[in-house]
Specification:
This is Transposase. The chain has 89 residues and is an all-alpha fold. It has a domain at 9-56. 60% of the residues lie in helices and 0% in strands. Helix 1 (9-21) packs across helix 3.
Length: 89
């Protein structure tokens, strides 16, 4: 699943390998293969891939989604108990 990323990890790896192993230019990757990253963003991914392999291009940040009940509990604790926000985080 892609969420808000432009490409899946498999797609990124395919673009990077085309670039590194087959000499396909960034411009060609963008126009003919569907790469939708900026030149600098792609360059950073290539460098991370070269240094760390597949794990270098995997993102770990996720947008956490909390239930309404958890949010209400946190707000109540903040207002009623005066718990600092940094402690609640």
């Amino acid at each position: 699943m892609r969420s808000n990323r432009k490409h899946t990890i498999d797609e990124l790896e395919r673009y990077i390998l085309l670039y590194l192993e087959e000499g396909v230019s960034f411009k060609e990757l963008s126009k003919e293969h569907g790469l939708s990253l900026t030149d600098s963003a792609f360059g950073q991914k290539v460098l991370r891939y070269q240094e760390h392999g597949l794990s270098g291009i995997q993102t770990t940040a996720r947008n956490n989604q909390y239930s309404k009940e958890i949010k209400e509990t946190i707000v109540r604790e903040y207002f009623n108990a005066g718990t600092p926000i940094k402690q609640l985080a």
